[in-house]
Design goal:
alpha/beta; Barwin-like endoglucanases; globular
């Protein structure tokens, strides 16, 4: 056996050994309740356990950009990909996640700010071609979008790596 095969087998054995030890450390499973009551469902619906939060930014005028910029460097230093879900904003931090909703189509996407713009003063946001397509305004070119910042409860800044 070559060294790569030996290393792979060793890694698989370590994973299997760790999984076996982990199951021994976990507490025994409780018996399931015989029935879920209406009160249980209502209590679960009232509890806010999600770590993902949406902070309303407002309604912003948006356009899209793509073909002329595809493959060129963005202001953040990464290469622009018109088929990724990204956006340009004049002053939001790079890496900021935004949930965009087109109220005319009721379609939503989450994009990541990685560029500066738009340079037209009549608009506040430029989105990639892929995002505009998903939101249903590719043909029209512009739309007013409901914008919410996506945050993680207890995390100051999402952990996104830039190369």
């Amino acid at each position: 056996m070559n060294s790569l095969t030996k290393m792979l087998l060793f890694s698989v054995l370590l994973v299997l050994a760790g999984a076996g030890a982990l199951t021994q450390m976990l507490p025994a499973k409780e018996e399931p309740k015989s029935a879920v009551t209406k009160t249980d469902v209502n209590d679960a619906a009232k509890s806010d356990t999600s770590v993902v939060k949406f902070i309303e930014v407002g309604d912003l005028s948006a356009s899209w950009y793509g073909p002329g910029f595809h493959g060129r460097k963005t202001a953040s230093g990464e290469f622009f990909d018109q088929e990724s879900f990204t956006a340009a904003h004049r002053n939001l931090r790079f890496g900021t996640l935004l949930k965009l909703t087109n109220p005319e189509t009721d379609l939503s996407v989450i994009v990541r700010v990685n560029d500066r713009g738009p340079f037209s003063r009549t608009r506040s946001l430029d989105v990639s071609k892929a995002a505009a397509r998903e939101l249903g305004f590719l043909k029209r070119g512009v739309a007013t979008l409901k914008v919410e910042e996506v945050t993680l409860e207890g995390v100051n800044f999402p952990f996104i790596a830039f190369n």
